[in-house]
Specification:
alpha+beta; 4-stranded mixed beta sheet; 2 domains
């Protein structure tokens, strides 16, 4: 029976409450259908990784939408060894669920959109210019020559690469290597990952350790440009 304090508009469900808020849940049918392929992969592989692209946020931009944690836990319950999230261009925390790692977002490992060889005509039309644009000139105008969108934000150009070690299916090591993509460099010199310098590496790992705390995970910050995800029993 319909409830008077609930309504659906443009496929979004609303419910009356004392304070405004937003939450997300998995579609049960989607969850079941994806799960069956994880079960299938488990039968055919020694290790199973699930990759998920998601922009939705939770209470803060650094927090994933609630559905993503539900999804990641279900994937591991069905047999996945690793869940890796990406999409929001933000570094988010890591969780060890049943001793399996869930990286809720690793931000950007590669970002080469500004070096695209072709741009659709409708995109060219959105940028006011007094001359005919080439792809390079289009992106330069789009980011206001480094002053707009992602270009001026150092964190967009930083991330980390986890190197995971498994022994007979059990996670026994998780080394974290901070990287940077050339913040502040000319377009042709940035976008590709390289090991971060000592100062940036420490900042990236310190931030990642903070993001991991709400999930009960511990990240150590090393002195030589790398960190570790602490695994129980290690």
């Amino acid at each position: 029976m319909p409830s008077p304090d609930r309504l659906t508009l443009f496929a979004t469900r609303f419910q009356a409450a004392d304070t405004p808020g937003f939450t997300t849940t998995c579609d049960p049918k989607d969850l079941d259908e994806i799960s069956q392929w994880v079960v299938e992969a488990r039968r055919r592989a020694d290790l199973v990784m699930v990759s998920v692209h998601s922009h939705e946020l939770g209470p803060t931009p650094e927090t994933p939408g609630e559905f993503l944690r539900e999804f990641a836990h279900r994937m591991i319950d069905e047999g996945a060894d690793i869940v890796v999230g990406h999409g929001p261009h933000l570094l988010r925390g890591v969780e060890l669920y049943r001793q399996k790692p869930i990286f809720y977002s690793l931000r950007n490992i590669v970002s080469q959109i500004e070096r695209a060889d072709r741009v659709p005509a409708e995109d060219y039309a959105r940028v006011a210019a007094g001359e005919q644009l080439t792809p390079g000139r289009y992106f330069a105008e789009l980011v206001a020559h480094g002053r707009r969108l992602f270009a001026p934000h150092r964190q967009y150009w930083q991330s980390l690469v986890p190197v995971l070690t498994f022994d007979d299916g059990a996670l026994v090591g998780a080394r974290l290597h901070p990287i940077e993509l050339g913040f502040g460099q000319p377009v042709h010199r940035r976008d590709r990952p390289r090991l971060a310098g000592p100062v940036d590496a420490k900042d990236i790992l310190t931030d990642f350790a903070r993001l991991a705390e709400p999930y009960g995970a511990t990240v150590t910050v090393g002195d030589r440009g790398a960190g570790e995800l602490v695994i129980d029993g290690s």
